[in-house]
Amino acid sequence: MRITRVAAVAAVAALAFTVAACGGDDGDDTGTGAGSKTFEAGTTMERLNKAQKIIIGTKFDQPGFGLKGLDNKPAGFDVEIGKIIAGELGIAADKVEYIETPSAVREEVLEQGKADIVVATYTINDKRKERIDFAGPYYVAGQHIMVRSDDSSITGPDSFKAGDKKVCSVQGSTPGDNIKKYLANPASPGAQLVLFDGYQKCVDALTNKQVDAVTTDNVILLGYVAKSEGKFKLAGEKFTEEPYGIGVKKGDTAFREFINATLEKIYADGRYAKAWQDTAGKFDSTVPQGPAVNRY
């Protein structure tokens, strides 16, 4: 039964791309209008292409992945991945609308139709897959800890077990859940774990010495370290693996497979590497190898 299901999913994705190829695509994936690409009737791809608009949920407070700039627009690796997907749908970059999706509301915006996809340092896990589906992964991060540069007392997550250090993370995030097991009282962290709705508030709390550390994924913290003018550093080593996926509405198999095929395409043609180099690569120059997508 599973072989039949996987074959059917592959056929759906293949059909979508076959129809698109017959639509006269000239190879320009920046999105040149509805006439440049054609998709199977009734699919999300067709709906978005005809509308010539896509709403992408992303982060607005994470250097290198999704950070809102002075021009009031987000920029980063996740934003670039979103643009590429839009381009493959025949939608121009200026027709993409970005909405802020803090960790706690990512499933909600997809369920309520407020976003078409969510590309927001979004760790794939089984609990989330009960509510939404994931394409990807497109990147594998690892949880890390950031401290003030003059603090040598924290060397890794085990440093929190004594209970005398406060750590900050974000509500509804995987790092916020992961760090609990290292606290003095994992079942009831109390004041030792400070949770905000965004990481910039954690960074401010670290600056003001309201907390002793901030924990989230390594590449996000590298961005904050780079922007801190020497105020912050990373402590210890990565202690988890966090596969980032692209959230789509539950049950939209054809759209998920379209995005998976897009990811594999850009791994091969160099657009993935360029997206990294132009964004997160400014903090981590090692271009990651695109991970194998999970066609569940």
From TrEMBL:
It comes from the Bacteria. Coiled coil: none annotated. InterPro entries: Bact_solute-bind_prot3 (IPR051455), Solute-binding_3/MltF_N (IPR001638). The keyword RNA-binding does not apply. Keywords: Signal, Transport. The keyword Signal applies. It holds the Pfam family SBP_bac_3. Residues 1-21 form the signal peptide. Residues 53-280 form the Solute-binding protein family 3/N-terminal domain. Belongs to the bacterial solute-binding protein 3 family. This is Glutamate-binding protein.
